[in-house]
């Protein structure tokens, strides 16, 4: 007589099934995360060149003194040379030497608020405001006048 074997080696084990299920979950969740991220970033533009330009400008203003504000920022550097940062056509530049910071700028305005130097600029229809430095000399002078009074 033939024996009937109840144990069959056909099919998947529980571990194999759970492993396949786990991998499927990971793939599906990563696709949904990337899809959501793509939708959330749609229409947003990150301008790294502007961030680099502001960093370079702020680095230039670390040693600035005798600063005047407006559409042109005029200051003396650590060697006593007079520098200007202004908008030439649509390019933000510094003279002497014509150092280009960034392009495609519509409008700029430097102003002082609480002894901090701010730059407000318009690029591609969006207005950005950046803290670019501190007028420490102005702060020292106002402290000295407060002590004298």
Report what the structure shows:
With 149 residues, the chain is α+β, with helices and mostly antiparallel strands. The chain has helices at 14-41, 48-60, 136-148; strands spanning 65-68, 73-76, 82-88, 91-95, 99-102, 105-113, 116-123, 126-134. The strands form two sheets. A five-stranded antiparallel beta sheet has the order 1-2-3-4-5. A hairpin with a 2-residue loop joins strand 3 and strand 4. The longest helix has 28 residues, at 14-41. 12% of the residues are buried.
Q: SSE string, helix = H, strand = E?
A: HHEEEEEEEEH
Relative strand content: 25-35%
Radius of gyration: 31 Å
- Helical amount: 25-40%
Mean pLDDT: 81
**Alpha-beta content class:** alpha+beta
Please summarize the sheet with the most strands. Answer: 5 strands, antiparallel
Gap from first CA to last CA: 118 Å
DSSP, total strands: 8
Shape estimate: rod-shaped
Query: Please, how many helices?
Result: 3
**Poorly predicted tracts of residues:** none
Order of strands across the widest beta sheet? 1-2-3-4-5
């Amino acid at each position: 007589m033939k024996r009937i074997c109840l144990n069959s080696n056909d099919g998947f084990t529980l571990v194999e099934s759970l492993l396949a299920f786990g991998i499927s979950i990971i793939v599906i969740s990563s696709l949904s995360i990337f899809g959501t991220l793509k939708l959330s970033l749609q229409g947003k533009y990150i301008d790294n060149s502007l961030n680099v330009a502001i960093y370079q400008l702020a680095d230039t203003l670390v040693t600035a003194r005798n600063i005047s504000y407006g559409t042109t920022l005029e200051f003396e550097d650590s060697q006593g040379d007079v520098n200007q940062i202004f908008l030439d056509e649509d390019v933000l530049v510094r003279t002497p030497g014509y150092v280009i910071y960034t392009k495609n700028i519509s409008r700029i305005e430097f102003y002082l608020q609480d002894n901090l130097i701010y730059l407000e600029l318009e690029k591609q229809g969006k207005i950005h405001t950046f803290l670019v430095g501190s007028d420490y000399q102005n702060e020292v002078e106002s402290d000295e006048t407060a002590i004298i009074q």
